[in-house]
Specification:
It catalyses: hexadecanoyl-CoA + H2O = hexadecanoate + CoA + H(+); tetradecanoyl-CoA + H2O = tetradecanoate + CoA + H(+); (5Z,8Z,11Z,14Z)-eicosatetraenoyl-CoA + H2O = (5Z,8Z,11Z,14Z)-eicosatetraenoate + CoA + H(+); dodecanoyl-CoA + H2O = dodecanoate + CoA + H(+). It is a peripheral membrane protein. The chain has about 210 residues and is of the alpha+beta class. The protein folds into 2 domains: about 80 residues, no CATH class; about 110 residues, Thiol Ester Dehydrase, Chain A. It has 3 helices and 8 strands, in the order ααββββαββββ. The strands form 2 sheets. The chain has a 6-stranded antiparallel β-sheet, covered by helices on one side. A two-stranded antiparallel sheet has the order 1-2. The N terminus is likely disordered. Bound molecules: tetradecanoyl-COA (MYA). Tetradecanoyl-COA binds next to helix 3, strand 5 and strand 8. The site of tetradecanoyl-COA has 18 residues, from helix 3, strand 5 and strand 8.
């Protein structure tokens, strides 16, 4: 998967300003907090969460100075026709509320995400849902692959080993690295680490289609 393939096909027609991007990301963050609040509170606690988010959104809509100093993590990018390209990836996009709030680094041959996951990603009690374990590992391995391999590559095979539950509510390091490149094939591996413990491991194969080689 490439970044351009995760961009919305139904792109908004008009260019947007950096403040518009910041507002979109601010609204996405409010949606994430609402999702956590809806699942994790009820009664007056839930009302308080909703009220706080509605107030903050109204303030930001009414006066862009409310967002002063809030820089968009993904500032606007435009295609050749001047249409804004919206990064919609459900793992990486800061304006997609489904995506967790990841911080991404790449260093040498290693990609790393850091993230603390809230309640809406829960599978077993206090632990990350196994599907999200796979999806996060897939994305970090793919990021490592795209640094090392020329052209577009797609996940062909992905094997996950669930060593122990991946905790919610504490910082995780999600790491991927390339192990071998053989022509169109790139093999990668990685892990999710909480504290000092490796909770899950992944290895996989990415292939660049014949047409793009
Ligand atoms: C709750 C949330 C739910 C979450 C759920 C968890 C989701 C987890 C995340 C999921 C992921 C999400 C991420 C996403 O969303 S990425 C999108 C998901 N992935 C795809 O859609 C990819 C679909 N597949 C394809 O399009 C094609 O298969 C591609 C393009 C990849 C390759 O097509 P192509 O026709 O070009 O390839 P080929 O068949 O000629 O093969 C090329 C060469 O490779 C060799 N080869 C092949 N296989 C193996 C192998 N196993 N071990 C060793 N070698 C192998 C093969 O023999 C050949 O060698 P050679 O003959 O050239 O020597």
């Amino acid at each position: 998967m490439t970044e351009s393939e995760t961009l919305s096909l139904e792109a908004p027609a008009l260019p947007e300003s950096p403040q518009d991007s910041a507002l979109a990301e601010f609204a996405a963050a409010a949606c994430r907090r609402l999702a956590g609040g809806i699942l994790g509170t009820t009664g007056s606690g839930l009302r308080a969460v909703i009220e706080a988010e509605v107030r903050a959104l109204q303030a930001a809509l009414g006066d862009s100075a409310e967002l002063h100093g809030v820089a968009a993590k993904h500032p606007p990018r435009f295609d050749r026709r001047g249409r804004v390209q919206v990064l919609t990836n459900p793992v990486m996009s800061h304006r997609n509320p489904l995506a967790p709030p990841l911080v991404h680094h790449h260093d040498g041959d290693e990609s790393e995400f850091r993230v603390t996951l809230p309640l809406q990603y829960q599978g077993p009690r206090n632990s990350l849902h196994g599907g999200y374990v796979a999806v996060l590992l897939d994305d970090v391995l793919w990021h490592a692959v795209r640094q090392m391999a020329a052209g577009v590559s797609f996940t062909r095979e992905l094997t996950i080993t669930y060593e122990r539950p991946v905790p919610l509510f504490e910082e995780l390091r999600i790491i991927g690295r390339v192990t071998t490149i053989e022509g169109r094939k790139t093999f990668a591996e990685g892990e999710i680490i909480a504290g000092e413990a490796v909770c899950a491991r992944a290895r996989g194969l990415w292939i660049s289609p014949k047409s793009s080689a």
